[in-house]
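wait is this the right file?? whatever heres the structure
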């Protein structure tokens, strides 16, 4: 057979072509299409005959599993036995995008899962409504990554039913593949678009403290938390060192800590003179495993803009009391706030210690 090629040009006709490709996949055919990394060749992951044909075309053993592109996070989670803390975190940060997560598979073994950010891939998966086994659209062992439809045809002409030609891919290199489980430590199986060093940094268990201006309460909490962690988790016992951060819901970037906060912390031999303010943003919230707010109002403001953080946002005080803002008050008020925050750290250590995986 001759492989059909449909050029996508951004017009309304593109969806007609994508729906046609979805019907072919539903019927068990093989279809190549662009992702943000390279062109992939997709097969219905539920169809054993389509998977066998895919292995034949790729030239790889039939018992070698394929990573799956999923239409949504719900589909991905249904294929696994449940995402770990780290799995949820990496999916928040990188999905849709060029990261494949290898997780325990429902029924045994493991499975690689990914949600693509490319509009063609996303539209196709949505039309299919099921995961696609999607290796790169070339022969196994090929030295070239297929970043254009022409490169796909060079290797797979006549062996697949259709190529959706969406132009050159954005990245031109494969996704990064990371295995995650309940240990909380990522295992890099293949370095691709996302650097391994970035994955290891992002994977660190992260605590975020939030106040308003990020000049006094949250910087004090950040510093006090670091001190508490030194005692609770000696360095040699840590699987991954904690990352502790702070930010403000109304903070301006780059300002120093409040002088009285610096003084109050200095009385405990804790130096926060190098602190610089940061504005709270979605990236900080996505990267945090535990978010502690000084007041109920801070918590509600976070939930209003990002409801999905609900399971990770805590009021710092376990007594459900606001930590008052000492700005423009006496040094004694700063000391009182400092001491209240220090008292709360015992509960912070308990919370993060009981849910690190």
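ok assuming it is, sequence goes like this
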């Amino acid at each position: 057979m001759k492989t059909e090629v449909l050029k996508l040009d951004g017009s309304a006709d593109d969806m007609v072509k994508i729906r046609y490709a979805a019907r072919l996949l539903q019927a068990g055919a093989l279809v190549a299409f662009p992702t943000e990394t390279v062109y992939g060749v997709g097969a219905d992951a539920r169809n054993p005959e389509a998977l066998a044909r895919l292995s034949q075309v790729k030239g790889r053993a039939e018992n070698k599993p394929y990573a799956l592109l999923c239409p949504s996070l719900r589909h991905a989670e249904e294929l696994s036995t449940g995402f770990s803390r780290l799995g949820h975190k990496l999916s928040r940060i990188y999905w849709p995008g060029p990261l494949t997560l290898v997780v325990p598979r429902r029924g045994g073994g493991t499975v690689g899962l990914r949600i693509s950010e490319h509009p063609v891939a996303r539209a196709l998966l949505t039309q299919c409504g099921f995961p696609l086994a999607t290796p790169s659209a070339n022969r196994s062992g090929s030295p070239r990554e297929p970043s254009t439809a022409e490169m796909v045809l060079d290797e797979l002409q006549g062996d697949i039913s259709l190529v959706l030609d969406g132009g050159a891919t954005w990245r031109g290199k494969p996704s990064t593949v990371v295995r995650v489980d309940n240990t909380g430590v990522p295992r890099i199986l293949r370095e691709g678009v996302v650097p391994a060093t970035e994955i290891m940094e992002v994977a660190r268990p992260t605590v975020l403290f939030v106040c308003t201006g990020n000049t006094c309460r949250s910087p004090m909490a950040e510093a006090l938390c670091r001190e508490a962690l030194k005692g609770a988790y000696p360095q040699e016992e840590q699987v991954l060192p904690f990352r502790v951060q702070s930010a403000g819901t109304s903070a301006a970037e780059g300002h120093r800590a409040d002088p009285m906060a610096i003084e109050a912390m200095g009385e405990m031999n804790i130096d926060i003179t190098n602190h610089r303010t940061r504005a709270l943003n979605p990236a900080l919230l996505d990267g945090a495993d535990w978010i502690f707010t000084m007041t109920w109002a801070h918590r509600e403001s976070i939930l209003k803009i990002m409801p999905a953080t609900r399971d990770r946002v805590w009021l710092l005080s376990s007594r459900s009391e606001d930590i008052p803002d000492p700005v423009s008050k006496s040094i004694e008020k700063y000391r009182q706030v400092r001491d209240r925050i220090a008292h709360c750290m015992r509960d912070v250590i308990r919370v993060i210690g009981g849910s690190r995986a």
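The mean pLDDT is 94. so i think its the right one actually
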